[in-house]
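BUG: 3D viewer hangs when loading the predicted structure for this chain

Environment: internal workstation, default settings.
Expected: structure renders.
Actual: progress bar stalls at 90%.

Input used:
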Amino acid sequence: MSDQLTAWLRTIVPAAWSALVAWLITAGAPDWLTDPLGDAGPTLVVPVVLAAVYALLRWAEPRLPAWATRLLLGSAQPPTYTPPDSATERDGRHRSV
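Structure tokens produced before the viewer hung:
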């Protein structure tokens, strides 16, 4: 699998898990918790859950078996990033030679 696909999967899969958790929270949260937030409730829950789930998965990753890492992060192998060479600018753009 290419590094680009691995990086994409390791971004999208945790985001999908976070969206599922956020949906479950908003679907089952008690009214006393969601009423003060009004219409902003789901908007606030998603980024908070995304941050929490991502941090939890990154912490748990070295402790999980490979199959669980693939299930929760999309790939058990993190992508490799090579430093830019002389023909590549620091921002990743190629310069004319």
